[in-house]
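From the pipeline queue, job 12 of 40. The input is one protein chain; the requested action is below.

Action: predict structure.
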Amino acid sequence: MSLTAIAFWISYVGGVLAAPFNPVAGMLLYILVYHLNPETQWWGESVRALGLRTSFIVAAATGLGLLLRQPRLAHGARQFPVPYVLAILFGIFALGSLVWGVEYGERGAYLAEKFVKTLIILFILIRCIRTPLQYQLVIMVWLLGVAYVGYEATGGAGLVQAGRLTAGLGGPDFNDSSGLAVHMVSTLPLVGACFFMARSWWGRIAALVTGALVVNTIVATRTRNVLVGLAVMTISGVLSLPRGYRVKGFVAVIIGTVLAIQLTDPGWWERMATIRTYQQDASSTSRLVLWKAALAMATDYPFGIGLGNFHQLVMDYVPDLTVERSAHNTIIACLAELGWPGLLLFLVITGVSIVRLGRLRRTARSLPPFEEVQLYRWHLRFHLGWHAVALRTALLGYLACALFTTRLFTEDFWLMLGFGMCLANVSRGLQG
């Protein structure tokens, strides 16, 4: 057994045993396991041999801890904030589409089961993460998982085809090139916030190394939709910064861009150049055909064709298509499968979440610049405004990238929405 596997088992067993007594520890372990996806790792042979469902076991232990410990929320905090209630309604509607949709398929059943599990995880997350320290730890563990994925990409792990990292890294929702790129892009604002909140140069260096690993992985995927996400994040992030930080933020973006360019190679530039000549690119033109088919489905089925049915039904709308294809657009996929009501619910959920984060940014103006938090001997800084700006920017970047790939029921997106709900509850405690 490798040292990596031994380190994983020590962390995993310790976290699972600790979760019933401290559900926060279980939640942190869940996020780490979500990123590592140990069943697919080169060092995960022992996990595969035992046939363990590592994420499920962690979630079960954390849920048990939630029942035993029943951590209390601060005065005014909510276990069922508006975005979560809307997410439940969205889930109910998605389940209903299995009944009134065109057909009941295995893909739809899988997505329904997956989203129900996601809603349960969000419930546990909202209840567990209640204080500045706990929120800070969640973000740090998220970045730790991302850094490990970036480290593996730098080390040559994963499947590379024609110079492009296509699969084999990351959690179950982002182990392909597009999913990995979106996940990494949306992490950049969180890295930036941690850099500005760091109390020491060691913290800033850790953030810079993580950022470099993230950018290197993004470049390796050769995914074009990242440019849209990066553009949206740059505009949103700089404009959202406090006035005294906007110039610094703009300079940081310029420096970061220059450094990121140093990590690119001719293959990356050749791939990006195809954006200007999309009419000659088969992948780009095929997406336009798929989007038109999805709009036709929405016209024929205003309440949707049913969860998970796009892959099969699109072949009826595009006669020349010989293989199943996804919509390659989250909004379009939602419209086709869940109809106009489902799309409206999804847009309201995301819209409300982003607006609430904007309110948190304004709330932070009336609070002290930093909240000092302590983890054993380590002192950390928590700033509500920085976290709110970073998370809102990350969500906007994620949604921009999702216009060119299907991310409707990926857990990382809903977890980030959950982070926003947790941050709102944390702010209640800060306001007294």
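Job complete. The chain has 17 helices and four strands.
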